[in-house]
Amino acid sequence: EYRRKFIGSLQTYKKSHNTRMRGYTETIGIILSVYPSREKDRRILILTETHGKIAATARGARNLSSSFVGNLQPLNICRLLLYKSGNENWTIVQCTMEKSFEKIKKELESSAYAIEMIESTKFLEETGEKHDIFELFREALQKLETSNKKNMVLQSFKIKFLDLMGLLPEM
């Protein structure tokens, strides 16, 4: 149902803005961090399902009346419509939140582990498809939200992450 609604709004956007699909892409992403940029924009670091880790600009996201308010928060999983301009910059055109890990955000221990997972993604290149890492991160967040052994979830994430990156030492 979300997909149908999102595609419908995408078609409405295309008609109202008279755009072609060139440069536009739809993806799911986990918001890693959010930084202010210029007077009314935000710079968002996203781990996407299709493009790996990217940095994108959300124009007008600091306005209180913006549709981005509440959606572009760290640890949210969002369905995104992105535009890639000729100079290789990503812009978030539309955003729909699919999952917010509120339980992780409210618990100090869970938040600390999630932040450590986010920090480990800093070693990812900002280009290249890393679908396996996206899935690993999503599964780890889901387990972190429900598990009582949060440290085990973090350690398991680190080992699998190193293995996917090809950095796990051979024994």
**Terminal Cα span:** 47 Å
Q: Largest sheet, described in full?
A: 5 strands, mixed, barrel
The number of helical runs is 5
Helix/strand-derived category reads alpha+beta
What is the strand arrangement across the widest sheet? Answer: 1-2-3-5-4
What is the typical, i.e. mean, pLDDT? Answer: 86
Rg from alpha-carbon coordinates: 17 Å
User: Into which percent range does the helicity of residues fall?
Assistant: 25-40%
**Strand portion, in percent?**
25-35%
> What's the overall geometry?
globular
Number of strand segments: 5
Poorly predicted residue ranges? none
Order of helices and strands: HEEEEEHHHH
Please supply descriptive tags for the structure shown above.
alpha+beta, five-stranded mixed beta barrel, 5 helices
Describe this structure in words.
The protein is globular, with a radius of gyration of 17 Å. It has a five-stranded mixed β-barrel. The protein contains five helices and five strands. Strand 1 and strand 2 form a beta hairpin. It has helices at 2-17, 102-106, 108-120, 131-146, 150-165; strands spanning 24-37, 41-48, 52-58, 76-84, 90-100.
Give the helices and strands, then pairings.
Elements: H1 2-17, E1 24-37, E2 41-48, E3 52-58, E4 76-84, E5 90-100, H2 102-106, H3 108-120, H4 131-146, H5 150-165
Helix pairs in contact: 3-4, 3-5, 4-5
